[in-house]
Amino acid sequence: MARPPARRNVDFFCAVIIVGLLAGVAGLATTTVLRFIEHVTYHYTFGTLLTGITGSSPVRRALGPMVGGALAGLGWWALRRAATMPPLAETIARRERIPRLAWGVDALLQVLLVGSGASLGREGAPRQFAAALGDWGTAWLRRLTAGDRQILLACAAGAGLGAVYAVPLAGALFTARIMLTTWQPRALGAALITSSLAVAVCSAATHDEPILDWPDANVSFELTGQALILAPVALAVGLAFTRLMAAARPARQLRTWVLVPALGGAGLVMGICSHWWPELPGNGRSILTVSLASGLTLSAAIAILALKPLLTALFLRAGGAGGMLTPSLATGAAAGLALVLAMNAVAGTHLHGPTVSLAGAAGVLAVTQGSPIWAAIFVWELARPPVWLFFLFLVTATGAHALKVVATGRGPTRSG
Predict the structure, then answer these.
(1) Per-residue pLDDT tens over the stretch 344-358
(2) Contact indicator for 363, 231 with CB cutoff of 8 Å
(3) Which of 211, 258, 317, 353 has the highest Cβ tally under 10 A?
């Protein structure tokens, strides 16, 4: 393979720096707007979304997501009538033109919907906004090839993900393994640089701290063997989640006025459910938080395990857009916690709930995204528990992924 000309390499390196910085700006902007919308929706000043929901009135819990959904639906009705909204991954893979303005507005509407309580991932907006900004910021570099631009746009998407969750390594591997499906040094090096820069810029909002608080508890190395028990459970939950989301997505993107009542109605359903399960609204961070804090009963874990994917499917069916990573992650965490609570109650075991919960999350994510190494790293970086637990997460993720390949005869089947 011929070596790229030196001037093209200089342009590529400049573009990598620009993309990393702009992806950080995208992550910082979407995080700031998301928090503002959450605070307005549930009328709170400090703390997490779960704190705001539990402290808000019953009327606000019900009407807040409904109003936010209706406003997002109104925005998408206007946007989709005026512009085409191609999927991010397919657009980058096919090296098609980037609709910068449309993607930027769409990202803002995603933030509005998720911030008001919709059961969708928040990572879709910064990935899309970062790709739009990266394409704009590097347009003046004329020596870049189509292949270079494909790498840069994928790097922007991965760096946007890394920025909002403060997961630099997972952001880089998302670019290489999920977006580009390669270990090519040029792509991997660019991904590592852009993700690190984006996380550094966005640290103004995230403070470079893990979004989940790992409990200070002694964990036995024996759990590594027991992690394989979770693999069949993660496989079943992951396949069910993927198929439910595929069935829920409309065959054609909704573009009519129906978006307004549909998303408003979905928000109302979410608001009503939050009266009993305040962990349900949002991307799934609340579920992960209470799972690590062992703050759920068995009945609550089972209810959340059923409702989280159903509500996510409801918002998709209503025409909403957003990420699928954290909803599937939260569903896996609920499955792991339900399993450990059931085993501890029935069999008299003493399994560590937070560890099994995160292992279940890694297993489900490996099934839905098709990359067990990336799933284990992403889950580990979210909480940053003891380093050896990464191998436990990897055992569950690899086991679930291997069972999927055996059961379906296919590798990656991404849910979003």
Answers:
(1) 887 676 777 788 889
(2) yes
(3) 353
